[in-house]
Amino acid sequence: MSGGGGAPEALALALSPLLQPLRLLSRAGLARVAVLREIEPLVQRVVEQARPYAGDLEAGLDRLQETARGFDSAPEAGRRTAIAALVRELSGLLEVPADIAALGRDESTATPKPISNTTPTSNTTSNTTPTSNTTSNTTSNTTPTSTRTSSRASPSRPPARRAAIAAAAQKAGLTPDPLLTPVDQLRGVGPAIRDKLRGKGLETVQDLLLNLPRRYEDRRKRRTVAEAPLGERSVIAGSVAWIDEVRARRGRRLEVRLRDDEGGYLMLLWFHYRPSLVQRLRTGARIVVSGEVRAGWRGGGKTMSHPDVEPLEAGGGDALPFDPASDDSFGRVVPVYTELEGVPARTYRRIARRAVDEYARHLADVLPRGVLERRELWPLAEAVREAHFPDRSAEVAAAAQRPAGEPHRRMAFEELFMVQLGLALRRRGVKVEPGIAFRATEEAIERIVKSLPWPLTRAQRRSVGAIAQDMRKPEPMNRLLQGDVGSGKTAVALCAALLAVEDGYQAALMAPTEILAEQHTRSLRRLLLHRRDVHVELVTGSLGARERAHAERLVRGGAAHIVVGTHALAEEDTDFHKLGLAVIDEQHRFGVMTRASLMKKGARPDVLVMTATPIPRTLALTLYGDLDVSVLDELPPGRTPIATRVYRDAQRDRAYDLVRRELKAGRQAYVVLPLVEESEKLADLKAATKERDRLAVEVFPDVPIGLVHGRQSAQERNDAMDRFLRGEDRILVATTVIEVGVDVPNATVMLVEHAERFGLSQLHQLRGRVGRGAAKSHCLLLTGTSGAEWGPAARERLKVMEETTDGFRIAEADLELRGPGEFLGTRQSGMPDFAVAELTRDQAILQEAREEAFALVQSDPDLRKPENEALRDAFHNRWRGRLSLARVG
Ligand code: ADP
Ligand code: MG
Fold first, then answer.
1. Which ligand has its closest atom nearest to the C-alpha of 586?
2. What is d(CA 779, CA 771) in angstroms, rounded to the nearest whole number?
3. What Rg do the C-alpha atoms of the chain give, in angstroms?
4. Does residue 486 have its Cβ closer than 6 Å to ligand 1?
5. Is the CB of 490 within 6 Å of ligand 1?
6. Does ligand 1 come within 6 angstroms of the Cβ of 743?
7. What are phi and psi of 17, to 5 degrees?
């Protein structure tokens, strides 16, 4: 029935949402045509979505669209004729199930058919293809179009309930979304498995479809033990020759000897396992195992640790499991899902297969047609199908052993596109509303720059220029200033702040920690020593009530020109007199909400975001994609290189020798301890105090040692910092509260305890505290004492520190090693959680998605065009909840 050309299957998929109301109607009878609602917009939308797949059937789509014109306001007779025409047009484009096709053939079918599951199965429908049967058989009820479904599905569900559901849906004018079909409507899913799936949040077939495999295994070829190469994954079949549970000093171990058909032996090992596994592995059982084959154990032979095991069908020989039609666990590239307690891998695979076969086609493409075409993206349904069971993409999946190739690209694209769309819309929202047009004259810039103690670097000048240009525009500035530690961002921020102050506005500088806010205040005041007319005020949570009230009065009255603070600035009781510029340092620690609430304090102030953690470009685009960017890619002159070395605990004395040498030369040193959890601040205090005392007694007896930690009041901390800055204390013991912002040029040594517990970017920040003066500096990374803390991952990280001081390289490495969530310190980072996209490897996809999203917002700023309607709905739904399309399980 379907015409050729294009991609008929994809087209049928795209058009399939139209079958739902028609199916309802065919059950209820044409006389009920009045209950159908919103048919015209539905047809419009579905047809637009289907266009990319139309091939040479475009004219058919046009006609289809035409049939629904005016439907929703038409009288009943008109509606009937329209439905008949619609069904006929639809029949030319895909195979329409017989019950629906009847609507097109006979316009006089006016008698309502009873809603029941007794509708006879017509033999003429036995040739229906997978695209045209199923779904609603399982979703709602009735009209079995294939004997297979009718004989199995009907008895399991009470007709009364199904009829009631269908009737209710119909009454509401709703067409049930097949994707929301409960999992237990799938054949083979009983109450027990349903409950287990539910326990993992898998309630509907849609959940199953979007629960993607973690990786793939190429089980297309079986190997004998002799053939299996070492260090590679292989699939090997055989029988259990011998099984033994061994009691070892550190718990139990399960050893199984597998004998393959050529008499080769493979040792299977489990170091943790469930009792049920032992039961499945009785002597003589025929099994197939899959896993990495390793070299001999106990002198010779091959082993496999923690293999996947599946039974070979008893008596059926080996042929059955290798028949792809009957089983998806062997003989193909097999998906491996996150294990589900109580649901064997093989069973889950069967369930996933059923969901994919019967429902994947209902996954609609919300991306605009133009995007799908230009970027040559697969239909979502196809991508999801292939992601579960790679056929077309089998080679790619087998080679990558994890989601890759076109299916991955399609899904990652959608996730990234949605985020970029959000950013594009947000940026547009900012740009269209009027802000402040500062004067920011060249003359003023010149004057301000001249007043600084040193000439700006070229990078600083460029950034100040770009910022001034933004400030002159009547729309709010939204700029990111990115620069490595020590690149001089504070000076740039100060120039911008002074430009605002010159026009009678206030500037706010928001820092992520109190100590950094205090440090900023100190350095700004120092830079502004000779400018008595500019008042810098500090507002933080740890100010006493009276001080705080005083500071806030100055801010409210306008006497404070530059206001420095923590997130307290964004809180409600801080009112500005006339906020014109908000500078946000280390923005990724705040998240979007704080930024937004700060912006509300002024009449749409200009915003400058500074980040000292060099953020890899991919992340920057995702987090700050709505910002313009300036980069300080140059350090102020006179910096000296920092030598970095990792010391094991046993080499501690050598590290202390180096510190002693520097102290003797008149320098100062930091000793940094890992920060403990917020809830353990007391322990933090203890650890820091204890270490200070230990150093004072055992290591550096005659050296004055200061202490800063998270339990001090602002005043205590300030005093400690001042003593160190003045050189009265020669060593400063600190928790990572000094991570950012401390500026003591005479300090040339940074000794970090338990360096393996720090993230790379954090270490880079810490290291940036030295090397600020003319003398050569050192960063000494001490590692913990126990082996567990000193794993290969930590070793890898610390090696990066020894090798480079390039902040961007370090950030990339950090991102790669830890993933974006941890890289940014999880939650509050504002970082969307992707299920499919991987920022480190999907940069090209990100770039494409970004271009398309920004272009789309340019051409349709409110997503009002009809062809973008599906996208708009999806965007609103997803932007509110998780942005990710799928999950990986
Ligand atoms: P960042 O915040 O980017 O880490 P800072 O603004 O703290 O860097 O600057 C680091 C140090 O460099 C400070 O001591 C600052 O006074 C100094 N500095 C900034 N700009 C210059 C410059 N153009 N020439 C010389 N020193 C500079
Ligand atoms: Mg700084």
1. 2
2. 9
3. 34
4. yes
5. yes
6. yes
7. -60, -20
Cα 844 to the chain's mean position, in Å? Answer: 16
| Residue 850 burial (CB count, 10 A) | 20
99 within 8 A of 124, measured Cβ to Cβ: no
Distance 429 CA to ligand 2 centre (A): 29
Question: Residue 485: CB within 6 Å of ligand 1?
Answer: yes
- Cα torsion 407, 413, 415, 418: sign: negative
Q: In terms of C-beta density within 10 A (0-12 exposed, 13-18 middle, 19 or more buried), how is residue 292 classed? A: middle
CA atoms within 13 A on the CB side of 639: 18
Residue ID of nearest Cα to ligand 1 atom 17: 488
* Closest ligand to residue 492's CA: 1
**Ligand nearest the Cα atom of residue 464:** 1
Stated as kind and residue range, the H or E segment containing 184 is: none
- Percentage of the chain exceeding pLDDT 70: 77
Residue 232: predicted pLDDT: 84
List pLDDT tens digits, range 771-802.
887 789 999 999 876 555 556 667 777 888 99
Q: What is the pTM of this model?
A: 0.55
Q: For residue 523, give the ligand 1 atom closest to its CA.
A: 16
CA-CA distances (angstroms) from residue 676 to 467, 513, 673, 684, 784?
A: 38, 15, 9, 6, 15
Rounded Cα distance, 206 and 213, in Å: 14
d(CA 298, CA 292): 18
pLDDT of the residue at 194: 93
**Cβ atoms 751, 672 nearer than 8 A:** yes
Looking at the CA of 768, name the nearest ligand: 1
The answer to whether the CB of 456 is under 6 A from ligand 1 is yes
pLDDT digits (tens, 9 = 90+) for 397-449: 988 888 889 999 999 999 889 888 887 887 777 666 788 999 999 999 999 99
Measured CA to CA, the distance from residue 72 to residue 387 in angstroms comes to 39
What residue's CA is closest to ligand 1, atom 19? Answer: 488
Give me ligand 2 centre to Cα 743, in Å.
9
Query: What is the 483 CA–ligand 2 centroid distance (Å)?
Result: 9
Q: β-strand 286-294 against 308-311: which pairing, if any?
A: antiparallel
